[in-house]
Amino acid sequence: MRIGELASETGVAPKTIRFYEETGVLPVPQRDTNGYRKYAPDSIDRLEFVRQAQAAGLTLKEIATILEMRDRGEATCHHTRAFLEAHLSDVEEQIAELERMRGRLSVMVERSRDLDPAECTDRNRCQAIPAV
Amino acid sequence: MRIGELASETGVAPKTIRFYEETGVLPVPQRDTNGYRKYAPDSIDRLEFVRQAQAAGLTLKEIATILEMRDRGEATCHHTRAFLEAHLSDVEEQIAELERMRGRLSVMVERSRDLDPAECTDRNRCQAIPAV
DNA sequence: GTAGACCTTCCAGTGCGCTGGAAGGTCAAG
DNA sequence: CTTGACCTTCCAGCGCACTGGAAGGTCTAC
């Protein structure tokens, strides 16, 4: 698979794929005789893992760390676990924060739903957002 | 209250507070006769809202938009609501993503917990992180 | 044999959210 | 009257995650 195909399979731009390689979240791929990057099918899974990890708030550096630990397959279990546990509690904290935000947002949405639209048009104070 | 006190009350650096003012997430404060910024006590709440909103993944621009809608108190209920609803579903999507990540992370942590530590020290493949 | 889609490298720029440092003003305590 | 903590503005730089563009090579189809 060439970079363009990997890009369209995953929705990640070729530029970004090269950038990921440079920063270490993707391994250096093989090359065709013409110099084009050649990817194995499992690159799709790896790239999707990267995007999901990003969506979960991990930085590229952190993702690279996790994947390099796996790729090296060295005696890093202890560090790996400490790292993973630290991230797990980060993620849990982020979830808690987001749930607080969700609560606030739905209160605001509810409030805006219940308002008489007529009140909105005559320069009354918009009541949807509570005093902060 | 001067900027230093607001900073120590909230844990946000004075530099950052000025920066927030510049970008519109904090209103332009009054000034003392000597030119120092003068903050009302409710600035603490506002600043804390900003930090919580940030922790929930909103950008400063988005936070500014929400707070400006409230500050202007104009006929923006409809837009406000659309905006809030869009954000609510963003936040819900982020929560879902984080929960997927939490699942993956705890599987990895569990796996690393169950491993025989002896296996980690002799260059065996670290099994904590599943193939990606 | 040429057009067009694809690939390569390299370097520069962008947007976000700060952060540092220079140069100077204000004020209370010793 | 000076020291030191605090404040002011302004401008520059940084880390992150891309993104754009130039200049050129490769391959297929017509």
Task: Summarize this structure as a short list of keywords or feature phrases.
homodimer, 132 residues, mainly alpha, Multidrug-efflux Transporter Regulator, Chain: A, Domain 2, two-stranded antiparallel sheet, DNA-binding
What is the total tally of β strands of chain A? 2
Strand arrangement in the largest pleated sheet of chain A = 1-2
Q: Let me know the largest β-sheet of chain A.
A: 2 strands, antiparallel
Q: In angstroms, what separates the terminal alpha carbons of chain A? A: 53 Å
**Uncertain stretches of 5 or more adjacent residues of chain A:** 121-127
Q: Looking at the chains present, what oligomeric state does this protein adopt?
A: homodimer
What class do helices, strands and sheet pairing of chain A give?
mainly alpha
**Helicity range of the residues of chain A?**
55-70%
| Shape assignment of chain A | flat
CATH class of the largest domain in chain A: Mainly Alpha
SSE arrangement of chain A, N to C:
HHEEHHHH
Strand content of chain A: under 5%
Q: Biggest interface in this structure?
A: A-B, 56 and 56 residues
Compute the CA-based radius of gyration of chain A: 23 Å
